[in-house]
Amino acid sequence: SCLEMCYVSVTMPSLLVGLWGGPGHVPFTACMTQLFFFISLICTECTLLTSMAYDRYVAVCHPLHYPLLMRPQVCIGLSLSSWLGGLLVSVVKTSCIASLSYCGPNVLNHFFCDVSPLLNLSCTHVALTELVDFISAIVILWGSLLVAIASYVAIGRAILRMPSATARRKAFSTCTSHLVVVGIFYSATIFIYARPSRIKAMGLNKVLSVIYTVVTPMFNP
């Protein structure tokens, strides 16, 4: 819940201000601050969604071992590693983007400071920054998605082996909302970030950004 409130609070105010008053001036420091918190929170979201998938895997496939496998120390460790990992990735990516030169006109074609719109404004060579962004996206997005998929494959097999329809329905209902969040979030973020070069079509980028910054938190349990 804390993550979702922070996650929405980073992007929604600038979206609402833009819708209400039109384009406005954003200082460079404020833009980099927003980018830092956004990257940190989106990386944390990825790893926490994976942790939630593992939690559901243990609950459905190993219910008798759940108190041991998901004891408080394990939950705290998963949560802390998610937040610290997000902060570390954000420091590296934000430092790379902040070190670039921006010659103007510095008109950001987006409703918040994101990676691709900022790279499109840079007048220096951005190949290294793009490579760092691409590798981190592959490791974080695809890595966490594969773990979530493996968890749900095991959950699906366990549900199909359950003898009664009531048990299958109950087990499936515990995973539905999280499965919807995973599907929406990863499909949008992988299309935007897990690609070797920055996006030129900012219209599509903005639509997809609304999906994973506004729609996804609404479905998150």
From TrEMBL:
Name a GO molecular-function annotation. Answer: G protein-coupled receptor activity
| Descriptive protein name | Olfactory receptor family 6
So which domain of life are we looking at? Answer: Eukaryota
Keyword terms: Cell membrane, Disulfide bond, G-protein coupled receptor, Glycoprotein, Membrane, Olfaction, Receptor, Sensory transduction, Transducer, Transmembrane, Transmembrane helix
Q: Where does it primarily localize?
A: membrane
Record-annotated membrane-spanning stretches: 74-92, 134-160, 172-194
What Pfam families does UniProt report for this protein, alphabetically?
Answer: 7tm_4 (PF13853)
Looking at the record, the residues that make up the G-protein coupled receptors family 1 profile domain are 1-221
Q: Report one GO cellular component.
A: plasma membrane
Protein's membrane topology: Multi-pass membrane protein
Where in or outside the cell it occurs: the entry states: Cell membrane
Function comment:
Putative odorant or sperm cell receptor.
